[in-house]
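Hello, quick one for you while I still have it in my head. My current little project is about how a certain protein chain folds up. You're getting the sequence in one-letter code plus the fold written as tokens. Would you mind checking whether the tokens look sensible for this chain? Here's the protein in full, and shout if anything looks odd to you:
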Amino acid sequence: MVQTADRPAEGIVMFGLKNTPPASSVLASTPAAAPAAKTPATGTSIPNPVPAPSGHEALIRSDKFKAIRAIVFASMNMSAALMKTRDEVRAGIEATAADAALREQLNVTPSEQTLIVDEILNDMFGVGPIEPLLADESVTDILVNGPDQVYAERHGRLELTPMKFRDNAHVINVAQRIAAAVGRRVDESSPMVDARLADGSRVNVVLPPIALRGASISIRKFSKRNITLTRMAQQGNLSAPMTQLLKIAGACRLNIVISGGTGSGKTTLLNALSHHIDEHERVVTIEDAAELQLQQPHVVSLETRPENSEGLGGVSQRDLVRNALRMRPDRIILGETRGPEAFDVLQAMNTGHDGSMTTIHANTPRDAITRLESMVMMANGNLPLLSIRRQIASAVHLILQIERMRDGMRRVTRITEVTGMEGDVIITQDLFAFRYDASAYQEGVKGTFESSALRPAFATRAQYYGLEEALLEAMRP
């Protein structure tokens, strides 16, 4: 006779990554697990009658799980169920699953039943077996490579998790539900999509035949904690004087470009900088997939839209930047500059929208300037290079270089100021830089954040806002 689970079962711990016992040990504690065969004294081994895959994988791919899941979905009014909360639906699913196991004479233990119910609820209300990883605050990235490989990033390091999907169709179904939730579609005719989850996490999906080894889902999670510059300084992402400088830069309405590689923390730093925007300012944000979490009361968030199947209806970042100029913004924040919209962003920065910010993929501040030049040429190839450089020198005040280092820590490695033009060259100066300690080559990166002790070119602007003394104090070595 099958017992119903009237309390949280220990089997649910298998979803977690910390203190997770081997699946075989969990199953071995139940009557359903086959005892391991002992090796005779002769040294010949007797094969185990039951294979030993992970408990989670074995269960979700078993016939008894498929039978119970089919009965539960067949007996439910899905439209009505999805109007309720997860907890309200859980009791009914537990009762139906217990009744199905009893009627079909399936040997299901209480812990397995809890796992089955959790999997069904994750399919209905979440993103399948990776739902527990989304709830784990220590996980920053979730990478699904087909049904059999799910990686998670913790503290800057990737690790393989025990999570499994039932099959490739299960991965595709989850991907399609994610896309449909934000009005996007993904299928064979449109096999790639950028989307977002309800909590703002960014999702990229690639389906077969583009993905050769099964559907791929890449999720960039947002921290539920409110990341500020002060907290970043406490974590060692930058120093206290650098924090003070960036707070002054935000208050002085400097135009800031954040440069870095993929996953280096550009958006997190942009969110932290946004805390120092005056609450009386009107801010317009423009993104491909909405990620920014601004705390100001007067924020208008815009998101691009891809073309439909007929190639119509697409709204690009460049369209949104142009439209934002007619919305009376005090500042424009572009989530990422990656194409011809760079021309319009520079125009906005040069036409009274001081304090605008954006991010860009580049390895150094000088590379960021070169990439801006290239992207402006994408918009208007007839512009002379000297004119483009003059626009950049006039529009951009600070370039912040952030890097994810080999120890997994994200650090602001340079704060570079654009000071103007000399001939046909853009002149910059480093205000702060991270210096490696080459003698301490260990698993963790050692080094110090050093001030150049130079007087910033925007000191006159800081004087206008009554912050010159604070700025010079922050620059003292």
Summary: Residues 1-53 have pLDDT under 50 and may be disordered. The longest helix spans residues 86-103.
